[in-house]
Design brief:
By secondary structure, this protein is α/β, with parallel strands linked by helices. Among the domains are: about 20-290, Alpha-Beta Barrel (TIM Barrel); about 530-670; about 740-860, no CATH class. It contains 34 helices and 26 strands. Helix 16 (about 495-515) runs antiparallel to helix 22 (about 705-720). This is RecF/RecN/SMC N-terminal domain-containing protein.
């Protein structure tokens, strides 16, 4: 790569915002004042030291020394000589032994002062050391840190309060951090039964910005209940570090050495970036192998947008404005917030990314449109002159002229919620489209074994409710499902349907290719270093085989559970169908007896139906027992004597798998670094191979959505579809009425479905924002309109006249309990009775149709009804509907494709955004890339956006589009946020801290 290419790559990474990088904030340099294990700090030693740091994966180092900055200053000098173009960040770290003690044995606590290297001149650092006094006295005068000699470095201590006062005199608050040890030489050694020790420990905690320790202490320091006096404690970051004092210790920089894990910090490679962890300790620091998003970035590379490029086509003269030229926006893999003033091009970026991501929301675009009411960039002379290119992390790219149509044969690569679409859903009176959107999300939470091969919410609904029909409703259901089936078969006969399946297969094959490419280089098994190491490695190999067997048996058990549940559903359907048939035959026999009895025939001899459901009932009972056995949680406890081959149920298999995994992890931690790397290599290969198998599927019993299943569907289209379609046409039958009991069984289905998401909804319910799901019978909003469509309201009767008739109808239905058949039937009888007194035929346009309408009970239906604050969807304001929809997509949607949202905050109050929406966005970016167009700080900052993209459109100078990218902690991006965004006071207080404004 050329120098200019290197510079561009570095800038692109900086523009991408806050990224996960390895930091080591505590390591000592050659010549450190205490415990120097590097040998003589001569030129060879220093060159070796800085070369190791430069070659390390760690990108930021806290160069540490006791009561001195000599190590930092010397490292800076030698680094400048050996690696003048290095991008590594060096931070001065002053290690101090405190006078305050908290442990029983009186050991001092060590704390560290990290100084912003931008202000850490030798003069300023010397000033701090000259200002800070130790406890050692000579001639009744306390020695300052700058006056310590080799003889008293090991004994010196300082008071934390003196440290605080000296720092305040020498630095602004944003230029330093106090990081206290939480391990052997720190707060975790607090004497548990000593009030004095606990009090001092709490005081040191309050003064500290963060802590050095091990991953197991992270949750403690993130908690809000650490203090002895019961006061609220602020969550604070915890960092692991090498604490290297020798070249051997520097091996810890890999993160492979036992007990020295890597510390990953998500920020700019600056001191300001490090300070951002103070404000977001739970989201900005990760101690361990790799943050989950980096693992997903490797293994799901087809699900992450890398960058967007926009340029004019070669023939464009610029006659209609400059617009997009040399645009190259890199995107963060987590949350990107696009901000700017009104008309600055924010929605333009969202529309272009969505177009290249093959969205199905083109008609709702606000920039790439040329509608009669919104003549924008797609009008002639503009969009056709510009070319967009979307590059994915996998290396795949899509390039289109901006006036092109999406390729509807290929699947959507992103989920786009444009502002216009959002408004159309939330302003819709009947909320049907909004309900369908939410149903899709709910469907994603149904267990695979419960989906019964259904491919959508409505597929599952039909599948689950088809067994709940009595005579009339069974026929109607079959007809409705048959018509749906016919439409589906006709759709499948179209060439585009097969092309879509082939495109889906191609997408899956690319995912397989991405997984194959993510396989780590082959790692040879290292030779055993000792008998103990060899035994541990053999034990790990043995346990890994047990783990693989458990995983295989668990998959088989899950598949078997799905088959049993499907078979149970069909057995129940058979049982109910036979009973319905028997009832229908008996009813028809009675009709024949009444009509033809005078002929002298015995109808019972002519029609003799024998029904024997004993075997069916036994089959149902047997399947229920098998399902219960597979789902039974025995709460097993495992020990070395456990025979894992006898573990059978899914919960027990999962528990056993976790037990074995935890054991392997513990054994791996005791291995040497080479053995750990080799075991991790084996684990990575095994996990990636399992993912490939899951995508490819098995031809013998293909799972839904696998390559094998899609290929089977294509084979069906080629070989079986024509005959299926012909048969479907022959099977069409008459329409029937539904009965109340069938509706009640449908309601039971909804009651079971609502439990799938209730716990997730509870997690986001807060204050007035309480989301619940109610499964009940709901009256159709068109009931009145349909009712009066059957009547002649200009003749005498209880419903004569538009206004009087509506009042009479409302009065009669006001007392109906739609969950009670008796109440509904009494209502119908009352309607008929009241009209009969005045001549019911004159009052109706078609009496038969009117009876069909009333006795079919089709004007109410079982429904799971979303409620927000006790109100259903029809009662919510547009803003409340919008917030509810966003919560579902952000908090509940299991799709992991990138999510792009254009200005969702309109009509939402700031409190809802800050309390609810920001939290949901934080959750969403853990599982998918989110790009958010917003002018609200509660979203951009409250959700801790990893990247800010500030856009401008200079309409005066030829509509030139420009942009700046960076992290929240980047001063330029910071300034744009303050300038463009504004919000409520709680959000502003949080932003003020994040902006590091004193």
């Amino acid at each position: 790569m050329s120098v200019s290419g290197t510079s561009r790559a570095i800038k692109r990474e900086a523009d991408r915002g806050s990224l996960w990088r390895k930091w080591d904030l505590h390591l000592h340099a050659p010549g450190t004042m205490l415990s120097n294990g590097y040998g003589k700090p001569d030129e060879a030693t220093w060159l070796r030291f800085v070369d190791i740091l430069e070659q390390s994966e760690v990108e930021a180092f806290g160069i540490t020394d006791y009561f001195s900055f000599d190590g930092y200053i010397n490292t800076l000098r030698w680094y400048g000589q050996s690696h003048p173009d290095s991008t590594k960040l060096l931070i001065p770290n002053l290690e101090l032994r405190l006078t305050e003690t908290v442990s029983i044995d009186g050991k001092n606590v060590n704390t560290h002062i990290l100084i912003d290297p931008d202000v850490a001149t030798p003069e300023v650092l010397a000033k701090l050391l000259n200002d800070l006094e130790t406890h050692i006295t000579v001639n009744n005068k306390r020695l300052r840190c700058s006056e310590l000699t080799a003889a008293n470095f090991g004994a010196a201590t300082v008071s934390i309060h003196d440290v605080n006062e000296s720092l305040d005199r020498c630095f602004a608050a944003e230029h330093y951090m106090i990081v206290t040890a939480a391990g052997n030489d720190g707060l975790r050694g607090t004497a548990k039964n000593t009030q004095r020790s606990k009090s001092i420990s709490d005081e040191l905690d309050r003064i500290s910005s963060g802590f050095f320790g091990k991953a197991k202490s992270t949750d403690f320091f993130l908690s809000e209940s650490r203090y002895e006096d019961g006061s609220k404690s602020d969550p604070k970051p915890l960092y692991d570090a090498s604490d290297a004092h020798s070249f051997d210790d520097l091996a810890r920089l890999t993160g492979d050495e036992p007990s020295y894990q890597s510390t990953w910090i998500k920020s700019n490679l600056t001191f300001r970036g490090l300070r951002q962890t103070i404000f977001e300790p739970g989201h900005r620091v990760f101690v361990g192998d790799r943050p989950p998003v980096l693992v997903r970035l490797e293994r799901e590379a087809t699900q992450f947008i890398d960058r967007l490029e926009i340029n004019p086509v070669a023939a464009y003269s610029g006659h209609n404005g400059t617009w997009f030229q040399g645009v190259d926006i890199p995107f963060n893999p987590e949350l990107t917030a696009i901000i700017g003033n009104k008309g600055s091009g924010k929605s333009a970026v969202a529309d272009i990314v969505a177009l290249l991501g093959n969205t199905r929301q083109v008609k709702y675009f606000s920039f790439l449109t040329d509608s009669q009411t919104n003549r924008k960039f797609k009008r002639q002379g503009f969009a056709e002159n510009f070319l967009g290119r979307l590059v994915w992390k996998s290396g795949l790219d899509v390039e289109r002229v901006l006036n092109a149509d999406v390729n509807e044969v290929e699947p959507e690569a992103i989920k786009y919620l444009p502002q216009n679409y959002f408004e159309s859903l939330t302003n819709e009176i009947e909320v049907q489209a909004l309900r369908r959107e939410i149903e899709d999300v709910v469907f994603s939470h149904v267990d695979i074994s419960d989906k019964m091969d259904a491919k959508s919410f409505h597929d599952l609904e039909g599948r689950k409710t088809s067994s709940s029909r009595q005579e009339a409703s069974q026929i109607k259901t079959k007809l409705r499902e048959l018509n749906i089936k016919i439409l589906e078969l006709e759709d499948q006969s179209e060439p585009t349907f097969k092309a879509k399946l082939q495109a889906d297969i191609e997408v899956l094959r690319k995912q397989v290719s991405a997984l194959v490419a993510s396989r780590p280089p082959e790692e040879a098994a290292p030779p055993a270093q000792s008998a103990e190491q060899q035994a541990a490695a053999e034990r790990i190999t043995s346990q890994t085989q047990v783990l693989e067997d458990l995983a295989t048996r668990q998959k088989s058990a899950v598949a078997l559970l799905g088959l049993h549940k499907k078979a149970l559903q069909e057995a129940i359907e058979l049982n109910e169908s036979v009973n319905a048939l028997k009832t229908r035959v008996e009813s028809e026999k009675n009709t024949l007896k009444a009509r033809y009895g005078y002929l002298g025939f015995d109808i019972d001899q002519i029609i003799n139906l024998t029904v024997d459901l004993e075997r069916v009932t036994k089959k149902i009972d047997s399947l229920k027992e098998k399902i219960a056995a597979l789902e039974r949680d025995s709460a097993m406890r495992f020990d070395p004597e456990t025979d894992f081959s006898k573990v059978g149920s899914i919960p027990d298999l999962r528990a056993a798998e976790k037990h074995i995994s935890d054991g392997i992890a513990a054994m791996r931690a005791a291995l040497s670094a080479p053995h750990q790397r080799y075991q991790r290599y084996l684990q990575d290969i095994r996990e990636i191979n399992e993912q490939i198998i899951d995508i490819e599927g098995q031809k013998e019993s293909p799972k839904l959505g696998t390559i094998a299943e899609l290929e089977a569907r294509i084979s069906r289209i080629d070989n079986d579809l024509p005959s299926e379609l012909s048969k479907a046409y022959e099977e069409r039958k008459e329409l029937c009425l539904a009965l109340f009991e069938s509706k009640r069984k449908i309601k039971t289905f909804y009651e079971g479905l609502k439990t799938k998401v209730e716990s997730r909804l509870e997690a986001v319910s807060t204050g007035d924002f309480k989301v619940s799901i109610d499964a009940s019978f709901v009256q159709s909003p068109k009931f009145g309109e349909d009712f009066f469509s059957h009547l002649n309201q200009n003749v005498t009767g209880p419903f004569r006249g538009v206004a009087d008739g509506a009042r009479a109808f409302q009065q009669k239905q006001s007392g109906v309990d739609w969950n009670s058949f008796e109440s509904i039937f009494a209502f119908v009888e009352d309607i008929i009775a009241s009209m009969k007194t005045g001549g019911i035929r004159r009052q109706t346009k078609d009496l038969k149709k009117f009876y069909d309408f009333l006795y079919s009970l089709e004007y109410f239906e079982a429904r799971y009804e979303l409620r927000l604050g006790g109100k259903d969807l029809n009662q919510l304001s547009p803003g409340e509907k919008g917030l509810l929809l966003l919560v579902f997509y952000l908090h509940l949607d299991t799709d992991n494709s990138p999510l792009i949202i254009d200005q969702p905050e309109d009509n939402l109050d700031n409190d809802s955004i800050f309390v609810v929406l920001a939290k949901c966005i934080r959750d969403a970016k853990k599982t998918r890339q989110v790009i958010l167009v917003t002018h609200n700080p509660n979203l951009a900052v409250g959700a801790d956006a990893e990247q800010i993209v500030y856009v401008r459109l200079d309409k005066v100078n030829g509509y030139k589009f420009s942009y700046e990218c960076g992290a929240i902690e980047n001063p330029n991006a910071n300034g744009h946020i303050v300038k463009v965004l504004e919000g409520s006071r709680p959000a502003f207080v949080q932003r003020r801290l994040k902006y590091q404004i004193t």
